[in-house]
Fold these 2 entries.
Entry 1:
Amino acid sequence: MQHRIVVLGAGYTGAFAAGRLARRLHRQDVAITLVNAEPDFVERVRMHQLATGQRLKPRPFSEMFAGTGVELKQARVTGVDADRKLVSVVDVHGADTTEELPYDTLVYALGSAWNPRGVPGTTEHAYEIASRPGATRLRERLEHLGAGQTVVVVGGGLTGLEAATEIAETRPDLDVALVARDALGDWLAPRGRAHLWKVARNLGITVHEHTDVTAVGADHLTTADGRTIPAAVTVWTAGFAVHPIAGGTTLELGGTGQIVVDDTMRSVSHPDVYAIGDAAQVMGPGNKPLRMSCASGLPTAWQAADSIAARLTGGKLPHAPLRYFNQCISLGRKEGLIQYVTADDRAVPAALTGRLAAVYKEVICKSAAWGVANPMFGLPARRRRVVREPAAAGSSARAVA
């Protein structure tokens, strides 16, 4: 009987893990099902580009997984019963009935979405770019926005910086503002902060530092100090929240709602479940949790896929390098910022700026998408036979009859 592996979510981590498992394990021994609501791969790190009208390269899963044995099930996940080892899904093509998918090993990669943080008016009036539907909706709004109108981006993190600079560069006729809770780029080294301010000034971006937004209206923001900031369009990028499905399960979760895993990405409460990417609470260097990002997600997918393969084939457990090297920020199409960091994500003095940094960031984005479609690059292509079942926590693996 084939070992059933179900992967939930086909973002960077889920798609990468599914492809890597398919190329690690013998096709006769495993059945790999990838559950995703959309039929093609979404480059989430490019949603700010989509929002400003740029065309992104289509990446259909039918082409990416051709000949691999991965079965794509286009459906929406509605629940996970981790005790009965069942996933409930609803077909996205209009069927109302719920189907249950049994699994032997589950890879939970449902990721995250935007986080309104409970601020009144955000869900009603703000736009998000954490998803393709959100970015598409913002694009349509920007296309109908007249010259001189104000676009306010809330959030001074990487997503906010990329959104504000992309919009300002693409639409120099608009009045673009950025609202940051702390000082602009306060986590960057001095060289990085200086370049960030230079780009903001050159693009005409108004920066509101040390500002908390307490309410979002149809045409304005209200701040904690009582100010009103005009906003024909509000783009909300103030952090991410994990997918809520895990919260309805018996899986052990951390305070953020992420699934608590060990260093092989296996759930500490359910050893047949692996969590990766934004869905997992992963401890990195210095015993600090990894931040939600593509830079964190791909190494966790690598670790999970190879750990599953090792446990099934009797191989040695791998140890992917769960650490950081740099933070890559696009500041429009012509400028960029590469802030080099320590293993635990603290800025060091070195930084790459300007056009070269923009090219570097583009290479990173293309490499991430290429890696999803080619998860076995540089590794033996030989598929291994399944010889044993994954062991329960605290026990040894047993041989398959």
Entry 2:
Amino acid sequence: MWDFWTVDDGEQYHLFFLYASRALKDPHARHYRASIGHAVSRDLVNWERVVDALVRSDAPAFDDLATWTGSVVRHPDGRWFMFYTGASLNDSGANVQSIGYAVSTDLMTWDKAPGPVLQADGRWYERYAPPPEGNWHDEAFRDPWVLADPGGDGWHMLITARSAAGPVDDPSDTVDRGVVGHAWSADLEHWELREPLAEPGQGFGQLEVLQPFVVGGRQVLLFNCLAGDASDRLRATGTEGGVWIAEAETPLGPYDIAGARRIDDPSLYVGKFVTVRGTGETRFLAFRNETGGAFVGEITDPYAVTWDGDRLVLDPLGH
């Protein structure tokens, strides 16, 4: 298991996660075999696995290869909406990602809506092109994180995407195009794609699994990027990949992505902040990625989260 997201229904925490069978043997093959599993907990430590949430659709469909990372929010009418990434292969065998959603009344049984509801638009976002024209290995448009508008004006979606144009300061660095994609909806069902909330050229080829969050009274943007997906300039500093946070003025930016700091051990990936019900304390979870060159594929126990000046400190709780 690897990428995950959580939601609190007021009684239990729900963990939705990507998983694949270890019978694949090659951990890199997991991405094309991903389904969305589901577990519940009352303390973020002891989890009970329950019925799976989603699997890929029969071809042809936007999610006929795999179902990837997303988020869950509750509509004012009580329905739960799961936004997720659908992966499919185009005619040249490239992975094209787009976004759909499913609806549930109980967080257990999910019904997919016809999709996709959002796809990359070449006006703002990079579309896949084969070499030598192409700059990236797939069409990156995934990991939808949905949040209510702070002022009550509908809903916003942050998306892992790449800019259609290169960074202004160094157009030759085609890797350095990672941006925070953006869409807006009045009702969670119909979506309007908008310009990115960040500019390319900030050091990252992609900002995976975005999460805006207030930690200790400070607004940040959490994202994830491996060293191999960083720009040449960032890699030249010797920086390892992992989980990053950028200072932010609001959940919708502006973000100091160029000044982002890695906050964890590089063996952890796809971090998430979770608010503890009742206390309001912040916890951090991640999945265990590679240790000693071997993929682990487990979710951590929660970490306590505190600030030491401008440094975010993660402390294992010792369960």
